[in-house]
Amino acid sequence: MNNKPSRVLLVEHREENARRLTSGLKQRKGVHVRELDLVRVHNVNEARVQLLVGEFDAVLVGVEAPDLAKSDLAALGDRPTGTPLLVYGAEAPEALRDEIVAAGADEYLTSGVFSQAELQLFGSCLRNTIDRSGILAELENARRYSQHLAHHDDLTGLPNARLFASRLRQLIAQARRYPRQLAVLFIDLDRFKAVNETLGSERGDRLLIDVSERLMRCLRESDTVARRSGDEFLIILDGIARTQDAARVAKKIQRELALPHVFDDREIVLDTSIGISLFPSDGEDEEALIKNADAAMNRAKVQSGSSIQFFVPKMNASTSERLELEQSLRTVIERGELALHYQPQVDLFSGKISGMEALVRWPHPEFGMIPPDKFIPMAEETGLILPLGDWVLKTACEQNKRWQDEGLPRFPVAVNLSARQFQCEKPADRIAKILHSSRLTPDSLDLELTETTVMADAEVAIDTMERMRSLGVKISIDDFGTGHSSLAYLKRFPIHRLKIDKTFVDSLLLDEKDEAITRAIIGMAKNLGLSAVAEGVESRDQLDFLRNLGCNEIQGYFVSRPLAPDDAAEFLGANADLVCALN
Fold first, then answer.
1. Per-residue pLDDT tens digits for 228-267
2. Are 116 and 193 part of one and the same domain?
3. Is the pTM higher than 0.70?
4. 3-state SS record for 306-365
């Protein structure tokens, strides 16, 4: 029970009455009886001032003549809503007491000489009225909160999907009456699940709140933003003049959300995929517009991070095909029916094999060999990337151990770890178990992590990489130059190689900027004591240029395409011929 004193405003012009009431009502009987703290004023005008500047749990008004009570009540009519009011005075007919209650009083009490019995009655009535008022206020607040939750997201306070659909329905009706164009934006935060799993749900919730606040800053008052579920948000852009206006707002949102989110001195960088549908061209009702914006968003996720896609009718057919493909992928992962191919990595100065990168392929009975860039994004979105990644890691380790047992050259096999694998619970323990089951020595495994993965939360990444490195495995940063690495963090990463992204190698002899970037990466790797590996080398000119820059290793079609395990074994057996080819 709440024993905090109740603050009561006493309106009494007679000194003796005020003294008796103040003294008598402050006396409590019983441990659980709440105290009454009385503040006395002389008239209703003073009372109005007190009610403006202070907070009171009740007002107690003494009237000289009961038939004048209604005028006093009128003067106090603008008191804070819910503050109970008790009136006391001389004996009055029941009809007059009823009129006083009807005029705004909670109760009329008859006073005489303020005997102890009267004072107890006053105190009891005051406390009961205050408690009753408090309970009613709590019930009203609970009712309003329940009503709010029915239409709003309890984390961000944004409208929920139900309220969003209702508002969209209303705006569509208005747009039909006064012809204008609407846009629905479907927003998904890329890699949010991985961030949430790594940082914990509390920081994940804070991130969602930050995202919702940024979204509102990007919009007009006439627009609506809602949280659909998880990391998905919906926006209505009302009355856009041109289709390009929707794209302009979507780009503005992407720029705003791409700015680092800082929590406890940790920076989180998010990409967003946005799908856009338009009224009336992409749907005549709210259900169709939301569905089509969702289809466009899924198309955006397949494209790449931070992509924007407008809806086109064929996307619905693509969605059906995608669902079918997703189910097929789930099945082949469970059955172990994917395939690994291996692409050699070669030391530029010795010409010998320095490693093999394991690359997953999907041999589909209808579509042929599906490359990873077509199904890996789908696996990441659906959570299938964890069982898929574990299968790739286990299969690659077992294959390398077989090659070693057959007497082929000893080298590390490189395996790409997805963000979800890297950020799951205790990834080093999962790797240790796979190494143990395959009987492969840790120095024969090279884990490749993308720049974006390790920079999502650099401090956590450093700790995770240290645990992996303590196993004895090697660690490389893949696709270097395409992310947002900080040199301050890079020098702290326990890595041994930087892999130069293929996009720079492709234009190496054509674009001075790509040449400068490649030169800088190789120089930085040397200064940090790391090996530099160039991906996507396809010509002798590229090879010679990279060797002159001091690049340590290369990988690409000039050396070999990715090979099936048996073909890779044959290639390894012909390693002496490779030395001649590179010199």
1. 988 999 999 998 888 888 999 999 999 999 888 887 767 7
2. no
3. no
4. CCEEECCCHHHHHHHHHHHHHHHHHHHHHHCCCEEEEEEEEECCCCCEEEEEEEEEEEEC
